[in-house]
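User: Run a structure prediction on this.
Assistant: Running it now.
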Amino acid sequence: MNDRLTLIGVIDSGLYGRVYKAEQVDLERIVAVKIIKPDYPDVADAIAHAKKLVQIGPHNNLVTVFGVEYVTIDKVGVNLPAVVMEWLDGENLGQRLNGPRFTPQETRRICTGMFDAVEHMHAAGIAHGDLHPGNIILLSDCTPKIIDVDPNRDNTLSRLSTISRSGAIVNDLGYCRNNAMLVFRQARFSIAATADLDLRLQDADNLDTIRQSCDDFIDDRLSSPTLGTIVPIPTSLGRV
């Protein structure tokens, strides 16, 4: 380790690196440090994407990347590139889908935050490329934080051809639709109602339409008791 980072323990391990909880000593703050495997074939791309997240600036629904450091791990003895990020105290969306059902308010917060983050990334000239539920961290109040741009692809929109750029954006929109439906199905809405929303989202070809469809769905069910689609949370046996 260097004189600025003290590694506390391994948190996760993925395709191209391990994530550690660490202390940034001089700033007295806890951070997450993803150390990139030295044998990973696209180390340069992984670093480039991390730097791109630094460049697009902070956003409430994107993990803040503080920079790229070089750290030394005991028993390895070589400097390894590492991405230093804000520490997120939460669980990923995939894990949370096995937990308590979302309220309508939590459903809106998750979906709106995800849409806002993707919109911010696209406006800054970068696509995510791998926005599966494991790459969305939910804080305790269900505020979403998107992490991990796909390191296996060149997701800088300015470097893609017009067709490829459109394809990258469409790919992100597909993830947004799918994740939104996962959240709505885990929320307190009836199966029939969410099936109708699913049909509407499949016809949505831009982020604004996806966002509006989700907002309208929640607003309709909160304001119209005749729809009767909010499902009460069970109080005894069974999944909640």
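The chain has two domains: 5-86, 91-223.
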